[in-house]
Write a structure and sequence with these properties.
With about 150 residues, this protein is mainly alpha-helical. The chain contains 5 helices and no strands.
Length: about 150
């Protein structure tokens, strides 16, 4: 039971981090197709977070899923601002998103490989990982390759 809560909290924090990063960076994106893909990715993160919220009370009726705190949000924003200060090209933005998305994939795969969880929780983690893997190839990889 506790493991399910920990997994849901971890994945929800990952979705919040993804949404925040996209929100902070999307106005810097110049290519409209790239911007639309980022909007779609943000919507996918939001859907996963909604799925987590739907089942969370089953495992923890006293609380809500953990999200990124103000310090984590500030560090994300600051990191993006710092890294795009001298180069705010779409390729640089894609590189930053590629790195962040890859960290989410690694964390999700680690959870799938190392944690015991209920099937419905495992399904959410699997969806989270597959969504990010899809976006690495469909969204980010072509931009990173032009660096």
């Amino acid at each position: 039971m506790k493991e399910n809560i920990n997994v849901l909290d971890e994945i929800n924090k990952g979705t919040c981090m993804g949404i925040d990063a996209i929100d902070y960076i999307i106005d810097k994106v110049k290519d409209n197709k790239f911007k639309k893909l980022l909007e779609r990715q943000s919507d996918e993160y939001k859907k996963i977070s909604e799925d987590i919220n739907e089942i969370y009370s089953k495992y923890n009726s006293d609380d809500e899923p953990h999200e990124t705190n103000k310090l984590e949000k500030t560090m994300t924003w600051f990191g993006i601002e710092l890294r795009t200060m001298t180069d705010d090209s779409d390729a640089k933005i894609a590189e930053l998103l590629f790195k962040g998305t890859n960290m989410g994939i690694l964390e999700g795969r680690r959870i799938l490989n190392d944690k015991k969880m209920d099937k419905e929780v495992e399904k959410i983690v699997d969806t989270y990982v597959k969504m990010q893997e899809k976006n690495i190839f469909a969204l980010l990889l072509p931009k990173v390759l032009i660096l």
